[in-house]
Design brief:
heterodimer; A: 248 residues; alpha/beta; 6-stranded mixed β-sheet; 4-stranded antiparallel β-sheet; 10 strands; 34% helix; B: 135 residues; mainly alpha; 3 helices; 85% helix; elongated
Chain lengths: 248, 135
């Protein structure tokens, strides 16, 4: 199937141009143990693609390969049509590939403002970073001088997202956004993800718990034991999800 | 989405494609480091071989004047190679070690902060006056 065709649920047309992210036959390993056995995945421009699967399926490794954090042993990673195997992750971050890792990756012993200050490395001024962050997440403005580690899980995730968005990413890689958060917070965060996607940012989101992410995704892929077993619109995949998780 | 916003996003995506196209794809740092580390070991070994050759050459003659070229081109070159190789080896094995140490330090620091925050929260809740009980 060609996931690049069609249109998004938000009404934003997925363009037929070269996809922003494409994996072709990607294999990856940890030492001698191969964990990805030939992944093919396409994230078309302006779309949200959800990569779902149970614990240990290889979702995070796939995301790390896309972000340049894990070098594939075979296959190719194409970003905006260019083969990017082995490119340094910081180089990708500088041009606009933003990764929000599992566990948020914020600095708990720095304040919200200091955490945001970290994003000025890309040449964006602190005023701009703060303006973008506080406009989208007003709660962070109230807590700008609070230590990030003392905030709630949802607020920490907001900070991680605000930090990522400050660099004006073109491609956003989200890992387990919902981890350890209450369902109501997860819904709020996915609402923000939908807004970001509507603004034209392409998003690859990795999730273990699927229900909420399917509401915002244009395409979804189910991953099992290092392989993508199914790709399609969320409405078509919902039925197959339970069997994927339960092994039925 | 507003028309102006759409325009900005198209611009951003076009900019992203251009930046990706102009990005230099280098070999990862880890591979480069490994190469330099192996180069260091290789140079050191080569230095030892050169010194052995020089020693073998110099030992073949009892005339000091004939031994000097071996000393200069063999001994000094060998010594230079060993020093250069050793420096490369130390430089790249140290950077690996220091990077590990830095990550470890950051990790410990985070754990320490988490513990402090937890302790402060426990203290805060312990010091909080109890709710008055209605009788």
């Amino acid at each position: 199937m060609n996931p690049a065709a069609g249109s998004t649920g938000r009404g934003t047309a997925i363009t037929e141009t070269v996809p922003l992210l494409e994996l072709r036959g990607v294999k990856a390993s940890y030492g001698r143990i191969e964990v990805l056995h030939g992944i093919d995945l396409v994230v078309p421009e302006g779309s949200v693609v959800a990569l779902l699967g149970p614990n240990g399926a290889g979702k995070t490794t796939t995301l790390n390969v896309c972000a340049g954090l894990h070098k594939p042993i075979a296959g190719a990673v194409y970003i905006a049509g260019r083969r990017m195997n082995g490119v340094a992750p910081d180089a990708l971050a500088r041009v606009g590939v933003c990764t929000i890792p599992e566990g948020r990756g914020i600095f708990p012993n720095l304040t919200v403002r200091e955490n945001l200050q970290m994003m000025t490395f890309a040449g964006v001024s602190m005023q701009e970073v703060e303006a973008v962050a506080y406009e989208r997440f007003p709660r962070l403005a109230e807590r700008r001088n609070q230590l990030a580690g003392t905030m709630s899980g949802g607020e920490q995730q907001m900070l991680a997202m605000a930090r990522g968005l400050a660099t004006e990413p073109a491609l956003l890689l989200l890992d387990e956004l919902s981890m350890g958060l209450a369902p109501i917070i997860v819904e709020e965060l996915y609402g923000i993800v939908a807004q970001i996607a509507a603004e034209g940012v392409s998003i690859l989101v990795v999730e273990q718990f699927a229900r909420t992410v399917l509401g915002v995704a244009d395409l979804a892929a189910i991953m099992l034991q290092g392989r993508i077993v199914e790709v399609g619109p969320p409405s078509e995949l919902e039925a197959g999800l339970s069997s994927a998780y339960l092994g039925g | 989405m507003k028309e102006g916003q759409v325009e900005t996003n198209h611009q951003r995506i076009a900019e992203f494609r251009e930046e990706i196209a102009s990005l230099t794809v280098r070999s990862p740092v880890d591979a480069a480091e490994r190469t330099w580390l192996l180069t260091g070991i290789g140079l050191g070994a080569l230095g030892v071989v050169v010194i052995l050759i020089a020693w073998f050459g110099a030992s073949g003659t009892a005339i000091v004047a004939e031994q000097i070229p071996y000393l200069i081109s063999g001994g000094l070159l060998g010594l230079g190679l060993i020093i250069a190789g050793g420096a490369l080896f130390v430089r790249y094995s140290l950077s690996r070690y220091l990077r590990f140490w830095l990550v470890r330090y950051l990790y410990e620091h985070r754990v320490q902060t988490d513990r402090m925050i937890e302790a402060l929260e426990r203290l805060e809740s312990a010091l909080r006056p109890a709710e008055p009980v209605d009788r």
